[in-house]
Write a structure and sequence with these properties.
- A hairpin with a 2-residue loop joins strand 2 and strand 3.
- The longest helix has 9 residues.
- It is built from seven helices and 36 strands.
- The strands form eight sheets. Strands 16-15-13-18-24-21-22 form a seven-stranded mixed β-sheet, with no helix packed on it. Strands 17, 19, 20, 23, 25 and 26 form a six-stranded mixed β-sheet that branches.
- It is globular.
- Helix content is 8%, strand content 39%.
- It folds into three domains: 160 residues, Immunoglobulin-like, CATH 2.60.40.420; 150 residues, Immunoglobulin-like, CATH 2.60.40; 156 residues, Sandwich (Immunoglobulin-like).
- By secondary structure, the protein is mostly beta strands.
- It binds CU-O-CU linkage (C2O) and copper (II) ion (2 copies).
- The site of CU-O-CU linkage has 10 residues, from strand 7 and strand 35.
């Protein structure tokens, strides 16, 4: 029998409660969306001319230098500020940034070497920094009410959207003004993490405006594998956006100041999609490569858009996408894909071999779920022959946790579904919208649990603090791209996905939530207390 919130909820609402509420909202969109499995969300249309694909060079975000190192720890400083960017050629776009760029600067760390990032908030709104995929003590994990206020804006703590409107307040919130130090022990498997805003009710529009950056963790064992490295290792942050006539980023926020009233306009309740595909902040970019193996570290930083990526040569051949890592680091052994689905917040570490492509040839990265302009993602131009001493070893790692179902001390069920929240549309977990004052799950440090996650439409579900393994999808074995240790799993419409994890690391208050950023802002988040 599942313990915890699921049981109480059923007793209170009755098993059909959540479904009944859902029907009462007239949420035909959820049912309709379930029948269109490739898309959850509605697409904005840009009001400026869009550039042709594969013209803009691929930028690679600069690696941030520490301002100091002491006692085996590195200290970084990031200023969150408004800045203008030229994302579309000839168009000026005001953005919210980390250090003036989108994506923000990349932080490179070694496993087990602690990092402190001091964030300074010069934006007009409170912010919260979360290191996605980080094994981070709760005080630095970016809980949505642990606000970093702009200078002199103490009154902002009174404007926390749903929190204040509905008399919900969070006595545990730790609010700071102007600067805040986030400390990351990074005692974890090497992988690609990303940091992004996580403010209560306003995460989706803040990420959309530019508050996202990469954080890579490395270690000696990974370095010794001989994988493609240096200029042949490329981070690829994929994100869709749309542009208003004045060049600004279009977003259907109910409150464009992003201060008081959360949420988006009705057609976009299921998620906001853009008609421009950016990679590392450039529209449909092109990158010149050697005829050699490249390691592509792909992150889907889109709010709601899913992709199914393939790499297609000029003569229509699909190159192998050799997956070597998942969200939480290296797989045990490579897995070869031709088509790679990637949901919001997921990361895939992939090796692609361009050595068989004729010099001068173009390899397009295509999104099979897109149509029109959103079908193209980026391209590689194979520029020259080159020596290649990189390898993809048959054994990549031997330290993956081997939890078995029989290790689990309990099984919990969570339904991720549309429903009603504060007299409007919401996205609910177990029939309830997020409430910082309620503890949804209490577990003991070290416990192994199986969670069964059930979806109406697409929900990419993310757990803070821990990595997990996918056990099954609707009673069937996991899919090839479910391999390895993950922190975000894509639930497909109607699916029940079982995951297994061990809650170790730190005690404290953490979160799990849907990483469709609009769903997250509209209630689809819950508290996880590790005691
Ligand atoms: Cu990237 Cu709580 O998430
Ligand atoms: Cu996270
Ligand atoms: Cu969702």
């Amino acid at each position: 029998m599942p313990s915890g919130r699921g049981v109480t909820r059923r007793q209170m609402l009755g098993i059909g409660g959540a479904l009944g509420l859902m029907a009462a909202t007239g949420l035909t969109s959820a049912a309709a969306l379930a029948r269109r499995p490739s898309i959850t969300g509605a697409q904005l249309r840009s009001a400026v001319p869009l550039p042709p694909p594969f013209q803009v060079p691929l930028p690679v975000p600069a690696v941030l230098k520490p301002v100091g190192t002491s006692g085996g720890a590195d200290r970084y400083e990031i200023t969150q500020c408004e800045a203008s960017a030229e994302i579309l050629p000839g168009v000026t776009t005001p953005m919210w940034t980390y250090n003036g760029t989108f994506p923000g600067p990349t932080i490179e760390s070694r496993r087990g070497r602690p990092v402190t990032v001091s964030h300074r908030n010069e934006l007009p709104v409170p912010t919260v920094v979360h290191l996605h995929g980080g094994r981070t003590p709760a005080a630095s994990d970016g809980y949505p009410t642990d606000l970093l206020l702009p200078e002199g804006r103490q009154e902002h703590s009174m404007h926390m959207g749903h929190g204040s409107e509905h008399g919900m307040h969070d006595p545990r919130a730790v609010v700071t003004e102007l600067t805040r130090d986030y400390t990351f022990p990074l005692d974890q498997r090497p992988t690609l993490l990303w940091y992004h805003d996580h403010r209560m009710d306003f995460t989706a529009p803040a990420i959309w405006r530019g508050l996202a950056g990469l954080h890579i963790v490395r270690d000696d064992a990974e370095d010794a594998l001989g994988l493609p490295a240096g200029p042949r290792e490329l981070p690829l942050m994929i994100a869709d956006r749309a542009f208003a006539a004045d060049g600004s980023l279009a977003y259907p926020a109910l409150d464009p100041t992003l201060r008081v009233r959360p949420g988006v306009r009705e057609p976009y309740l299921a998620g906001v999609l853009g008609d421009v595909i950016l990679v590392n902040g450039a529209p449909w970019p092109v990158h010149e490569v050697d005829a050699a193996r490249y390691r592509l570290r792909i992150l889907n930083a889109s709010n709601a858009r899913h992709y199914e990526l393939e790499a297609v040569t000029g003569d229509g051949h699909r190159l192998d996408l050799v997956q070597i890592g998942a969200d939480q680091g290296l797989l045990a052994a490579p897995v070869v894909h031709r088509l790679l689905p990637i949901a919001p917040a997921e990361r895939y570490d992939v090796v692609v071999d361009f050595s068989g492509v004729p010099i001068g040839g173009l390899v397009k990265v295509v999104n099979r779920l897109g149509s029109g302009r959103t079908r193209d993602v980026m391209a590689f131009r194979v520029a020259r022959k080159a020596a290649d001493d990189s390898r993809v070893p048959r054994t990549l790692s031997t330290d993956l946790p081997a939890w078995r179902r029989s290790d689990a001390v309990r099984v919990r069920d969570f339904a991720f579904r549309a429903g009603r929240m504060h007299s409007g549309h919401g996205w609910l977990i177990g029939g309830l919208p997020f409430d910082p004052a309620r503890t949804d799950v209490t577990t003991r440090l070290g416990d192994v649990e199986v969670w069964r996650l059930i979806a109406d439409v697409h929900h990419p579900v993310h757990l803070h603090l821990v990595g997990f393994r996918v056990l099954s999808r609707s009673g069937r074995p996991p899919l090839p791209h479910d391999a390895g240790l993950k922190d975000t799993v894509s639930l497909r419409p109607g699916e029940a996905v079982e995951i297994i994890t061990r809650f170790d690391g730190y005690r404290g208050r953490y979160l799990f939530h849907c990483h469709n950023a609009e769903h997250e802002d509209m209630g689809m988040m819950a508290n996880l207390e590790i005691v």
